[in-house]
Design brief:
By secondary structure, the protein is α/β, with parallel strands linked by helices. It has one domain: Rossmann fold, CATH 3.40.50.300. The chain is built from eight helices and eight strands; from the N terminus they run βαβαβββααβαβααβα. A hairpin with a 2-residue loop joins strand 4 and strand 5. The termini are close together.
Length: 230
């Protein structure tokens, strides 16, 4: 391997970004960064600080807290997944709750939060050798990344994947509720003023509605080999 690159994986909610990005990072032995989990962590922190307890909440007292936040990503041997550590606390299980899911798109619209996390994310990728997934990696965080992938899938399949995941964790929810939540997140992600979810002009699109993770991974490595990126 002659040199390291940055691989940006963007896409819609529950489109399989994390699964693919993590699989790519394992094969390349690269660092894997799930930026969505970073926004979820901030949403969890905001919930803990009770900043959503008023309809007229503002971020004035919350933003200063972000100056001292510290993120780490740690490999979980037991579950063979990457956990996120916020201020030395493993919060991986807490950030996947429905309560956090309902707030994360709102948190992602706040300029000061995006600005702070952008600085952290760019710093992580400074020396390359990173696979980073999110909503605005190719367009905003690493516009010069060597490989850009944009993930999509039908709303029905994405909703069913998320529904199965939640039911497996014992969450009492219907498929219709999950589909409604994902539709709302799609709208908020694509319509926000700052760094909206949008396919960059040089991104390779993967519609994984009917593709297995192995098929997606094979496709990505064909791209890497054909373009002589490594």
């Amino acid at each position: 391997m002659n040199h390291k690159i940055i691989i940006a994986v963007d896409g819609y909610s529950s489109s399989g970004k994390s699964s693919l990005a993590e699989a790519i990072s394992k094969k390349l032995k690269y660092k894997y960064i799930d930026t969505g989990s970073m926004y979820r962590s901030i949403a969890l922190l905001a919930i803990r600080k009770k900043i959503f307890n008023s309809d007229l909440w503002n971020t004035k007292n919350f933003i200063p807290i972000l100056r001292n936040i510290n993120f780490k990503f740690k490999w979980n041997k037991k579950y063979k997944k990457t956990d996120i550590i916020l201020n030395n606390e493993n919060i991986q299980s807490e950030i996947k709750t429905l309560q956090v899911t309902k707030k994360v798109s709102l948190i992602a619209q706040i300029p000061e939060i995006r600005e702070r996390l952008t600085i952290i994310q760019r710093n992580i990728g400074k020396y390359k050798g990173v696979v980073m997934d999110g909503r605005d990696i190719a367009n905003s965080i690493f516009p010069k990344s060597e490989l850009k992938i944009f993930m999509k899938g039908s709303i029905e399949v994405r909703s069913y994947r998320r529904y199965k995941e939640l039911k497996k964790r014992g969450v009492d929810i219907t498929y219709e509720e999950v589909k409604k939540n994902i539709s709302q997140r799609d709208f908020m992600d694509t319509s926000r003023k700052i760094s909206p979810l949008k396919k960059s002009i040089d991104s390779i699109e993967i519609d994984n509605t009917f593709l297995s993770i192995e098929e997606q991974l094979n496709f990505v490595f064909r791209l890497i080999n054909n373009q002589h990126l490594l």
